[in-house]
Amino acid sequence: MRLIYALITGLVFGIGIALSGMMNPAKVLNFFDLAGHWDPSLAFVMGGALIVTFFGYRLVWRRKAPLFGGRFQIPGATEIDAKLIGGAALFGVGWGIAGFCPGAALPALGTGRWEVALFVASVIGGIFLRRLLTPTKRAGATA
Question: Where are the transmembrane segments (predicted)?
Answer without folding.
Answer: 42-61, 82-105, 111-129
